[in-house]
Design goal:
Helix content: 25-40%
Number of helices: 11
Order of helices and strands: EEEHEHEHHHEHEHEEHEHEEHEH
Strand order of the largest sheet: 5-6-7-3-8-9
Shape: elongated
Largest sheet: 6 strands, mixed
Radius of gyration: 23 Å
Mean pLDDT: 88
Distance between the termini: 28 Å
Strand content: 25-35%
Low-confidence stretches: 293-305
Length: 305
């Protein structure tokens, strides 16, 4: 069973369609990247999932139930949607104790989560003096207070330095390895590519693609084949329905292909292959190919990220 299920979800704000018939799943034991440019509908979707906004139509459920019907939501789902919700005069420990008390979570859990995110030594410091990276860790600590099986995090890598990104990446992988479903919204595409298992790409409120990251990267693979007869190999690959062209004197490039497809087509036609290599397109380039970066919205959705 999916931990998170978004099914035909639509949200309209007057004439603006922020989320448009969106469906996807996030599974236990998996980090799912929820990707899209600003204005794509990511935050609106997460707000509906967490009961902070009502859908126009469709459903968003956690463990098969909408958020408001969860019997003990703080222990079933942890969320971090806003990285600046802290009272600057309170310490990290005070901030977490207030949340724990409101949710009926034992106070002993506060030092536990501070230890998990590496803030034990800073627990008594005022949050107003925290760096952005420390605030992101505190946000994650708050999400973990109820030891939930599902985590929903909006832009957890935003504003982090390389050390902070590496720490957060490792933490998210660890949490998923414990069997939790981790849904991460982000626009830091290359960093996310080193963190997530599955990706969901949205643009202008609509689903663009979803599936395992490795599978999606394979769709953008470029195969380079060195051969004694590049012109003949191009003809063979074009006849096989592949996109191919001569890259240089002896090398042919086949786009969105597999090495098996190129190698078998060449063998069947008797074209010798001297070298065959695969080059995956980076996630950022593939993302912009999928969402068509130059396509401007015809409605003012940018404020509805």
């Amino acid at each position: 069973m999916s931990a998170i299920t978004i099914s035909r979800l639509t949200k309209r704000y007057g004439p603006v369609v922020a989320v448009d018939d969106l469906s996807f799943d996030a599974h236990p034991g998996t980090v799912t990247g929820f990707l899209g440019p600003n204005g794509a509908g990511k935050t609106t979707t997460l707000r509906i999932l967490l009961g902070l906004a009502a859908p126009t139509s469709g459903t968003a459920t956690i463990g098969g139930l909408p958020y408001h019907k969860l019997p003990d939501p703080a222990r079933q789902v942890g969320a971090a949607l806003d990285g600046n919700v802290f009272h600057p005069g309170r310490s990290a420990a005070q901030h977490l104790r207030i949340i724990a008390t409101a949710a009926g979570i034992p106070a002993r859990r506060v030092p536990e989560v501070l230890g998990i995110v590496g803030l034990t030594d800073a627990a008594g410091r005022r949050v107003g003096g925290y760096s952005l990276g420390m605030r992101q860790r505190l946000n994650l600590a708050a999400a973990l207070l109820g030891d939930p099986g599902t985590l929903v995090l909006d832009e957890p890598l935003n504003g982090l330095d390389p050390d902070g990104i590496r720490w957060m990446r490792t933490m998210l992988r660890t949490l998923a390895a414990e069997g939790r479903a981790v849904l991460v919204s982000s626009h830091l595409l290359n960093e996310v590519s080193q963190t997530v298992d599955d990706i969901v790409v949205v643009s202008r409120g609509r689903l663009v693609t979803q599936g395992p990251l490795a599978e999606l990267a394979g769709r953008g693979a470029l195969i380079r084949a060195r051969t004694t007869d590049p012109a003949r190999l191009v003809d063979v690959l074009l006849a096989a329905g592949l996109r191919a062209s001569i890259a240089d004197g002896a090398t042919v490039e086949a786009m969105a292909a597999t090495a098996d497809e190129v190698g078998l087509a060449a063998a069947a036609a008797g074209v010798p292959i001297l070298e065959l290599t695969r080059h995956d397109e980076d996630l950022e380039s593939l993302f912009f190919d999928l969402t068509d970066k130059t396509d401007k919205p015809d409605t003012p959705q940018e404020a509805l990220s």
